[in-house]
Amino acid sequence: MKNSKWIFGLIIFLFWSCRDKDEIVPDPQSDKVRGAIFESMQEWYYWNQELPATVNFSDYSTNQELLDAIIFKPLDRFSYLTTQEAFNDAFVGKNAGHGFGFAFDATERLYLTFVFAESPAGKDGWQRGWEIIEINGKTIAQYKTSSGGYDFQLGTSDPGITNSFTFKLPDGTTTTRSNMKAEYQSNSVLHQEVIDVAGKKVGYWVYNSFKATAGQSPTKSLEVDESMAFFEASGIDELIIDLRYNGGGSVAVAEQINNYLIQSTNTNKLMYTNKLNSLKTDLQKSVDFKKIGNLNLDKLVFITSRGTASASELIINSLDPYFDIILVGDNTYGKPVGSFPLSSYNSTLKDNNVELVPITFATANSEGKAEYFDGFPADFAVGDTPQFNWGNQNDLRLAAALSVIENGNVGGRLVNTFYRPKWEMIDQFKGLKQEFPAY
């Protein structure tokens, strides 16, 4: 009996010893992880030749401190760190929060700009055009910072956090709503309709962030398919694409949209090329158009702003050689480079649930246009009017886009409305949240 107990005890000891030896205990803020970040940057970073030769990892208290210290600051405003779950969820629209955006008008009044339909805000009936006059009992002016921006102190995006908002509605009445953050599925298509303009059928498409539909292979958006089917069935003659709050997202979905928009005569022609660093030239590629659907357009009008970035700019740049393209609104953000996540190439990052998403490539269109770090300039600078809901032709940027289609230009009355806000929603966020900005 004693021997059997000893053997049983030995087996337990060996079992736990083996488990302790093999089990990986994540330590995401360790020097080992920082070493993996630096090694991955040396291998994959687009500007890897600008990295320091060596790094003392103990000089940095967080991974973010390290990344901020080594990126190529003259051009890199984009590289970031997150978790693998957060990255994967964002690119298929799995969000948590209230589910809305906001912006200031020319008089610094704050309005809802968009509301995701299935979010807590959407389910409570919030709409673009509602003026926010108080948050948690404080006026908007009370949240202004010394730098001229705003910190609305809404907390993290974790479910269960509640904030109170007082709105002035378009009819002049006020309402106070308490709203609890929750997980939700965000929609990319905020609005679509067909407007009759001077005998033409004009499609108006408000598209907010390039997100794939979960489970689709190859990666694509069913929302995009449905919108394009709607415009095809409507027999549109012209198309206005509203990207004013679109911070980017999936390049694969951008390609999908481009393939719907390109003319049949230009299928198989070059959409864009990408360029990686000198260690990864074998991974560089050219992407050609593959026509989808029956749209046949010669001109595209885009509504843009400084919140129009990344994949939004890739769309504009890739289509520019093949269309008469007009930009209405404000200059775009300026991101001619892109990223992909690196944890799948580094076991230390993967085992510690650290997702490194640095700039890894640059893109150029078929004419070689690649350097647009200052953004694309608007052809007609027109101020934003977030007090009007989607499709309301009192919205000055929509009115200007319709004027371009009807008259070929924008009158002085609309152009004279231009203002550039000192603070925009894209200024509130960094990293992954800047690509998919929402509260």
Describe the structure.
By secondary structure, this protein is of the alpha+beta class. It folds into two domains: 95-185, PDZ domain (Pdz3 Domain), CATH 2.30.42; 189-435, Alpha-Beta Complex (2-enoyl-CoA Hydratase, Chain A, domain 1). The chain has twelve helices and 20 strands. Strands 3, 4, 5, 6, 7 and 8 form a six-stranded antiparallel β-sheet that branches. It is globular and about 65 Å long. Mean pLDDT is 93; it is low at 1-21.
Total number of helices: 12
Structural class, from secondary structure content? alpha+beta
Q: How many extended strands?
A: 20
Terminus-to-terminus distance: 66 Å
Q: How many domains, in number, for the residues?
A: 2
CATH class of the largest domain: Alpha Beta
Strand content: 15-25%
CATH-defined architecture of the largest domain: Alpha-Beta Complex
Largest sheet geometry: 6 strands, antiparallel
Which parts are unreliable, with pLDDT below 50 for 5 consecutive residues or more?
A: 1-21
The dominant shape is: globular
Mean pLDDT: 93
Keyphrases for this structure?
439 residues, alpha+beta, Pdz3 Domain, 2-enoyl-CoA Hydratase, Chain A, domain 1, 2 domains, six-stranded antiparallel beta sheet, 12 helices, 23% strand, disordered N terminus
Give me a quick take on this structure.
Helices cover 26% and strands 23% of the residues. The chain is of the alpha+beta class. The protein folds into two domains: 95-185, PDZ domain (Pdz3 Domain, Roll); 189-435, 2-enoyl-CoA Hydratase, Chain A, domain 1.
How is the secondary structure organized here?
Layout (H helix, E strand, L loop, with lengths): L1 H21 L8 H14 L18 H8 L9 E3 L1 H7 L3 E4 L2 E5 L5 E6 L4 H4 L7 E5 L2 E2 L22 E7 L5 E7 L1 E4 L3 E9 L2 E8 L14 H13 L3 E5 L8 H11 L8 E6 L10 E3 L10 E6 L6 H9 L4 E6 L7 E3 L7 H5 L3 E3 L1 E6 L15 E2 L14 H12 L4 H4 L15 H5 L4
Parallel strand pairs: 11-12, 12-15, 15-16, 16-20
Antiparallel strand pairs: 1-18, 2-9, 3-4, 4-5, 5-6, 5-7, 7-8, 10-11, 13-14, 13-19, 17-19
